[in-house]
C-alpha cells in the first residue's frame, strides 16, 4: 500500500490516519470537554478525604496496638527468662542434695563410706558446674591477675615476684563473668 511517485521513481508510504480536525466544543485530540469531569464536586472530594482519613486512623490505631502487644509479650518473656533462668542448673543440683541427705541418714556409715559418698557427691557437683559453664579459678603458680584474683597477702618466696604462691579460696567464673575472684597470697618482690 504505497503510492508510487512518478517524478522521482521511488516509493512513498501513504500517510496513516491523519489527525481529525478539532471540532467546535471539543479538545484537541478528540476529547470532548465536559464540565462535570473537569472539576469534581467539593462534597465528593471532602467525602473521599474523610474516608481516607478514617482508613489511615484505623491503620494507625491497629499498628499502635500491635506494637503495644509486642512490647507486652517481650516484657512477659523477659520476666519468665529471669524467673526460670536457673531451672536447668537447679535440676542438676537436685541429685547432689539427694546424695548429701542420703549420707546423713545412714546410721551405720564408716568414715571410709562417708568419704566415698562425699567424693561421689563432689563429682556430681562438678558435673553440674560444667554443664552450667561454671568454672573454677585455681591460680596456684600463675602470675597474679587482678581481674581474676584478689591478693590477701604478700609473702616471701623463691618464686618470681607477683606469682600466686597460695590459694586461700578458689574463685569461680560463669562463662566470662567473674562470680567470685580467687583469694590468694602473692610472692613479694625482693628488696
Question: How would you concisely characterize the structure shown here?
Answer:
With 191 residues, this protein is an alpha+beta fold. It has helices spanning 35-38, 42-83, 87-105, 111-131; strands spanning 2-4, 11-13, 134-137, 149-155, 164-169, 171-174, 177-180, 182-187. Among the domains are: 42-83; 134-191, Head domain of nucleotide exchange factor GrpE (Nucleotide Exchange Factor Grpe, Chain A, domain 2, Roll), CATH 2.30.22.10.
Q: What does this 3D model show about the protein?
A:
By secondary structure, the chain is an alpha+beta fold. Among the domains are: 42-83; 134-191, Roll (Nucleotide Exchange Factor Grpe, Chain A, domain 2), CATH 2.30.22. 45% of the residues lie in helices and 19% in strands. The strands form three sheets. The chain has a three-stranded antiparallel beta sheet with strand order 3-6-7. A three-stranded mixed beta sheet has the order 4-8-5, with no helix packed on it. It has a two-stranded antiparallel ribbon with strand order 1-2. β1 (2-4) and β2 form a beta hairpin. The longest helix has 42 residues, at 42-83. It starts with a strand and ends with a strand. The model has no long low-confidence stretch (mean pLDDT 84).
Amino acid at each position: 500500500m504505497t503510492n508510487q511517485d512518478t517524478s522521482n521513481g521511488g516509493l512513498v508510504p501513504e500517510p496513516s490516519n491523519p489527525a481529525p480536525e478539532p471540532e467546535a466544543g471539543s479538545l484537541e485530540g478528540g476529547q470532548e470537554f465536559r464540565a462535570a469531569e473537569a472539576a469534581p464536586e467539593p462534597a465528593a472530594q471532602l467525602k473521599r478525604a474523610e474516608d481516607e482519613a478514617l482508613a489511615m486512623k484505623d491503620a494507625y490505631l491497629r499498628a499502635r496496638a500491635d506494637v503495644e502487644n509486642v512490647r507486652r509479650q517481650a516484657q512477659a518473656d523477659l520476666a519468665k527468662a529471669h524467673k526460670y533462668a536457673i531451672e536447668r542448673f537447679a535440676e542438676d543440683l537436685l541429685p547432689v542434695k539427694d546424695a548429701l541427705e542420703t549420707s546423713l541418714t545412714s546410721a551405720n556409715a564408716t568414715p571410709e563410706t562417708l568419704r566415698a559418698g562425699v567424693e561421689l557427691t563432689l563429682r556430681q557437683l562438678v558435673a553440674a558446674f560444667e554443664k552450667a559453664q561454671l568454672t573454677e579459678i585455681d591460680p596456684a603458680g600463675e602470675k597474679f591477675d587482678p581481674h581474676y584474683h584478689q591478693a590477701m597477702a604478700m609473702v616471701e618466696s623463691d618464686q618470681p615476684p607477683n606469682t600466686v604462691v597460695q590459694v586461700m579460696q578458689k574463685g569461680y567464673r560463669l562463662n566470662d563473668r567473674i562470680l567470685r575472684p580467687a583469694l590468694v597470697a602473692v610472692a613479694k618482690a625482693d628488696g
